[in-house]
Amino acid sequence: TEVTEKLEEVVMIWTKQIRQVLVESEQIRREADDVGPSAELEHWKSRMSSFNSLLDEIKSSRVKKIISILQAARSKTLQQWKELDGSITIAANEAKDNVRYLYTLDKFFGPLINASPVMMEHIPSLMNIVCMIYCTSPYYNTSEHMTSLFLKITNQMINTCKTYLCEG
């Protein structure tokens, strides 16, 4: 029982740390007002990396051994652990899925930055892919995510026009 108590303390510390990571990942992002759409992709790539690292740690043999010992001891801390494990898996899947969908827009980021204000040739294809993301993504098709993406696309178009006017 002494060993079980020590292992439960360790799992409670991990639980607290993981909860902190989850809470921080859900907080509103602070970004510059003129940030472009590539920042959206970078945000989700970073989030994917963080959650994948966390998943790798959770699936390590050391953690699995501790969890199996606590299962054998019928520890009550495991319920919280299982819930957090599920939350981390969902967050990792969301980030991975969002990166996959946003990469389909990546080919437009360069032309959007380097185009002259007559960037109309890129807009229909770009909007078709944004529509496809909205219609098919199980995670990214929220009003919050789409608004953020449209805001960043619009910011990039405005920045491109400003650059054109200042250089022309």
From TrEMBL:
It comes from Promerops cafer. It comes from the Eukaryota. One of its GO terms (molecular function) is dynein intermediate chain binding. It holds the Pfam family DHC_N1. The gene is Dnah5_0. This is DYH5 protein. Residues 5-166 form the Dynein heavy chain tail domain. InterPro entries: DHC, Dynein_heavy_tail. GO terms for biological process: microtubule-based movement. GO terms for cellular component: axonemal dynein complex.
